[in-house]
Specification:
Length: about 190
């Protein structure tokens, strides 16, 4: 009996979305490891169990946001989500980001997200040339402090996936696009 409990505790039961818009969850069992992230789980499944599983990642350290997925109903970066925090019962459900078309399995088409970013005029429009001095915004300045948190957005789509308004109103630009537009409206260097 102790062996059965130990074996069960050393395995994570994972349900992963497979398919496109229409699909189903597929169950896997993955060995539990210390300091294991949800991205580690997905990578293990793809490398050791089912090489046909599609997902996206790049940096693995919470800088790029490419690995964003829905874990137990909440959109999050899988590289920064530790299994111990989300699988206390030993089970995890992983799905693609919501509000975006599913390409395959855990991969979504980010084009609608970035199209709305462009509609919000989320591009910096400076008027300096390479011959001009660099425009500086001092970190301690009021202008910088006003946009400090907003410039931390890395364009991962987690907020977009979590936004109910995007679900109800497909024409709504979404929080990331509006955040970017607000940031640029408050950037003293933008023209």
């Amino acid at each position: 009996m102790t062996q059965a409990i130990a074996t069960e505790a050393s395995v994570v039961k994972v349900r992963v979305w497979r398919g496109k818009e229409q699909g189903e969850y597929q169950a896997y069992e993955v060995p539990r490891q210390p300091s294991q992230t949800v991205l580690d789980i997905v990578t293990y499944i793809q490398r050791e169990i089912d090489p046909s599983l599609s997902y996206r990642f790049a940096c693995r350290v919470g800088v790029c946001g490419s690995c964003a997925m829905v874990v137990n109903g909440q959109a999050r970066w899988t590289c920064r989500t530790h299994v111990d925090k989300v699988a206390q019962d030993g089970e995890i459900e992983i799905a693609p980001l919501r509000n975006l078309p599913v390409v395959k399995d855990l991969v979504t088409d980010m084009a609608p997200f970035f199209d709305k970013w462009a509609k919000a005029k989320g591009q910096f429009q400076g008027d300096t040339t390479r011959h001009d001095e660099f425009a500086r915004v001092e970190p301690e300045s009021k202008q910088r402090q006003a946009v400090d948190l907003a410039i931390e957005c890395i364009g991962c789509g987690v907020c977009y996936s979590s936004c109910d308004v995007v679900s109800w109103r497909p024409d709504y630009l979404g929080p990331a696009a509006l955040n970017r537009a607000w940031t640029l409206m408050n950037d003293v260097r933008d023209t």
